[in-house]
Amino acid sequence: MDELDVWRTLPVKQQPNWPDPAELTAARDRLAALPPLVTAPEIRVLTERLGSVARGEAFLLQGGDCAETFAANTADKIRDKVKTLLQMAVVLTYGASVPVVKVARIAGQYAKPRSADIEASTGLPSYRGDAVNDIAATAVARRPDPGRLVDAYHASAVALNLVRSFATGGFADLSKVHEWNKTFVRDSAAGRRYEIMATDIERALSFMAACGIDLERTSNLHGVELFTSHEALLLDYERALTRTEDATGAVYDVSAHMLWIGERTRDLDGAHVDLMSRVGNPIGCKVGPNASPDDVLALVDRLDPEHIPGRFTVITRMGAGRVREVLPAIVEKVNSAGHPVVWSCDPMHGNTRDVNGVKTRHFDDVLDEVFGFFEVHRSLGTHPGGVHIELTGDNVTECLGGGEQIGEADLAGRYETACDPRLNTGQALELAFLVAERLQQGSPRLAPTGDRQVGR
Ligand code: PEP
Ligand code: MN
Description:
Elements: H1 21-33, H2 40-54, E1 59-64, H3 75-96, E2 100-105, H4 139-142, H5 147-168, H6 183-186, H7 189-210, E3 226-231, H8 235-240, E4 242-244, E5 251-253, E6 258-261, H9 271-277, E7 283-287, H10 293-303, E8 312-316, H11 323-336, E9 342-345, E10 352-355, E11 358-361, H12 363-380, E12 386-390, H13 425-440
Parallel strand pairs: 1-2, 1-12, 2-3, 3-6, 6-7, 7-8, 8-9, 9-12
Antiparallel strand pairs: 4-5, 10-11
The protein binds phosphoenolpyruvate and manganese (II) ion (MN).
Residues 66, 349, 390, 419-420 line the site of manganese (II) ion.
């Protein structure tokens, strides 16, 4: 058997009950014949960039929707999400004088793990993301359809095409820093703070130009490196897009630059860990408060046996109330084993709450978990390497609090997510400013040196 198919012999969680095996085989064959979405050299560049995060020389910003949908795969929504990430990144880069590695949850985040196969409220199969079924609450819509795996590939290709153009085609030029600020954010406290910072950046650019520095030819100022990522959940999809590079014999999952394994599918002897252990991409793994230090070390040993900086990102999602208590022992264990991992904080998934049947999160909890994460790493002398955020470029009202003080009564206003509640642009920007402050107070290796590349 091809070693890339060993996962098929192992316990596998969270796969849809596809009703027709022949349809699934046809979809897999179709996917296997389609071109890669990303290439091996790009994937290796991301590993290198994450390697610098692991060494404490850069910061990882990972963010995007909880669940992308085909309906929301529009020019406006993609542009606005990219703008939000660019804004956050520039706030972090400028505010903390640190290179920021930008990884979007985009162009492939179409599959969701669910707590139950059957949705209690409707008796229908649960919605598992647009790559599997439709969110509408009818039996026909909820039937898992393998044709959607192919649709997800094409939707990803369309999104990625635009993302690539935005990243390098002038849109992300630093001279456009004001234009990334959306009108609905401009009047908020975070929006105003951003305007001031953007004006400072423009002034700095004019100053450099006046000094005779050729900004036109400084490519870092005119585009950004923006990488893609999604949860590696549907293994038929990921396997069909796993390819061997002719020149090197190296194996990569070419559906995205970075893949992560979810909290619910990270079993050491399970299928997800097996398949991801055999691909060369940077791999992340979500780790919740029930993971023991030994569990996490076993995962790191399995997924990063060669101790490659940037290969493995531990994405902790402990909840604001638990992070200070459970994170230290995990960090110490992995660290003392000598693994050069990236430590990233997902302050969303441990802080979900129910308000009258509506899933939400409070900005204060999100912030508190990020601060707890920083405190733990500072006290251990390790690098708080990054954040992993669910966000949108829209003015939604899905998470409580923040500068605009979204209250429980506001949740009904613009609650649009297909799965988990996301920070809106104002909340995301506010978070970026607060993280930048923490980062700046940080480790000596990240102190401004004046000679470091802008790192955009
Ligand atoms: C997610 O990132 O949307 C997710 C399901 O997270 P976790 O695996 O941490 O629960
Ligand atoms: Mn989510």
